[in-house]
Amino acid sequence: MEEALRPHGLGATQWYILHQLATIGPTMQRELAPLLQIERATVSIIVSALVRKGLVEQVPSDLDQRQKLLRLTPAGTGLWGELPDLAFIHDEAFSDFSDADLETTARVLRAATERLNHRLKGKKA
Amino acid sequence: MEEALRPHGLGATQWYILHQLATIGPTMQRELAPLLQIERATVSIIVSALVRKGLVEQVPSDLDQRQKLLRLTPAGTGLWGELPDLAFIHDEAFSDFSDADLETTARVLRAATERLNHRLKGKKA
DNA sequence: GACAATATGTTTGATAGCTAACATTTATGT
DNA sequence: ACATAAATGTTAGCTATCAAACATATTGTC
């Protein structure tokens, strides 16, 4: 994935934000953190990079001066059109396993993750 | 994991290198890249951080002036003694799943990873 | 021995992520 | 209305990665 994007100077998370803006449309910056499951601060930095490259605009909202609406610039729309189709990654990677195997895998990873979270939170308290 | 280490100002990879030096003993820097499955350059940066903190020494080899032997300093040994036991993470996270479930999980993830690698390499050529 | 190839480590300049602290702005509570 | 709390975004400083270019040192080959 990184390899397909590198020639265009993009990283995976930058791609995902462009994907959001190109597919769903203009989006509040606020919404990206829960969507991508990363911190507000990280969103801020990555959006800055996209703005610096002239691919995305931050338009302050009229109703709430804190919030900024993100929108593709013409250059951003143009570049999006040139990008290869990366959706296959999510679709094909797991395509020919049985549903049972996929369910098992998801269950094991989910349970292990939760177990570690509980354990670490316990240690902290 | 990061949380348990943060009070000591260490990251996961730094911890792993200390673990290697404390458990196995002095190690050539060269060996760490394949061991941790990261790049030479990354090893160099992380080792630099440990050296800067005074926890690790880089001793140039006599036989081959390029190679550097990594060794804990007294401060490094001391800090290692104060660190909580993090080995439980590797041991307990997956401890009460059946072997069959673990095998399925490993197989699915391994195959998916390989498939993506092939796909991306194919695209590049 | 001399020259080319390989191995080792570092540096530079990216992306990506985190926490903590801060400024603004909006919303709440009394 | 006024003070306090919560939401939003940014910045600073850190870890972790990578690729590409570079400096040395060691090994091969001729």
Give a quick summary of the entry:
Chain A is mainly α and 125 residues long. Helix content of chain A is 62%, strand content 10%.
Q: How many individual domains of chain A? A: 2
Helical amount of chain A: 55-70%
- The CATH C-level name of the largest domain in chain A is Mainly Alpha
Mean pLDDT across every amino acid position of chain A: 81
Per CATH, the superfamily of the largest domain in chain A is: Winged helix-like DNA-binding domain superfamily/Winged helix DNA-binding domain
Largest interface: A-B, 25 and 25 residues
3D shape of chain A: globular
Taking the alpha carbons of the first and last residues of chain A, their distance comes to 39 Å
Uncertain ranges of chain A: 119-125
- Counting copies of identical and different chains, the oligomeric state is homodimer
CATH-derived topology of the largest domain in chain A? Arc Repressor Mutant, subunit A
Adjacency order of strands in the biggest sheet of chain A: 1-3-2
- The total of beta strands of chain A comes to 3
Number of helical segments with 4 or more residues of chain A = 7
Q: What percent strand of chain A?
A: 5-15%
